[in-house]
Amino acid sequence: MYKANIYVTLKEGVLDPQGGAVKKSLHVLNYTGVTEVRIGKFIEVWLEAKDPETAKVELKEMSDKLLANPVIENYRVEMLEVE
Amino acid sequence: MYKANIYVTLKEGVLDPQGGAVKKSLHVLNYTGVTEVRIGKFIEVWLEAKDPETAKVELKEMSDKLLANPVIENYRVEMLEVE
């Protein structure tokens, strides 16, 4: 069994209205030192595969096809073997 | 200037309908080895603070008050000093 952590972030230059709203709210709460907020996804996937190479290939495919939108998002995959 | 990565995840036992939907979609795409998917948030915050201790305290407060819902979510903060 493999466990993957996938971090999906908006590409630089892509507008992040959710991050902008959170930044404004933090300023209202008096955290005026906050200069920028960007909000992405943290996706955890557990999967069975015959070997780690297969798992890595599948995770890359899943990210490209479904988990991230490669036009506007970057992603990074970390994987470890678990019991 | 400090940069923080904040990982917000649903607590164990809290239902994750979005993760369930993604798991089903991955099965439809023939990734049948996927046994579980959990979807959380990956929040990046840049802030100014007079020292790292102050920054850490503020980040913890922001997470408790706004970025995470402590009733159903856990969070983890990583912080580094940047230029």
**Count the strands of chain A?**
3
SSE-based structural type of chain A: alpha+beta
Spatial strand order of the main sheet of chain A:
2-1-3
What is the CA-CA span between the terminal residues of chain A?
Answer: 6 Å
Radius of gyration of chain A: 16 Å
Task: Summarize the largest interface: chains and residue counts.
Answer: A-B, 33 and 33 residues
Could you state the CATH homologous superfamily of chain A? Phosphoribosylformylglycinamidine synthase subunit PurS
Structure annotation, total helices of chain A = 2
Mean pLDDT level of chain A: 96
Write down the overall geometry of chain A: elongated
Taken in chain order, the helices and strands of chain A follow as EHEHE
Quaternary organisation of the protein chains: homodimer
Structure description:
Two copies of one chain form a homodimer. With 83 residues, chain A is an alpha+beta fold. Chain A is 34% helix and 39% strand. Chain A has a three-stranded antiparallel β-sheet. The first copy, chain A, contains two helices and three strands. Chain A has a single domain (2-81), classed as Phosphoribosylformylglycinamidine synthase subunit PurS (Mth169, Chain: A, 2-Layer Sandwich). At the A-B interface, β1, α1, β2 and α2 of A face β1, α1, β2 and α2 of B. β2 of chain A pairs antiparallel with β2 of chain B, so a sheet runs across the interface.
Concise description?
The structure is a homodimer of 83-residue chains. With 83 residues, the first copy, chain A, is of the alpha+beta class.
Keywords:
homodimer, 83 residues, alpha+beta, Mth169, Chain: A, three-stranded antiparallel β-sheet, 2 helices, 39% strand, elongated
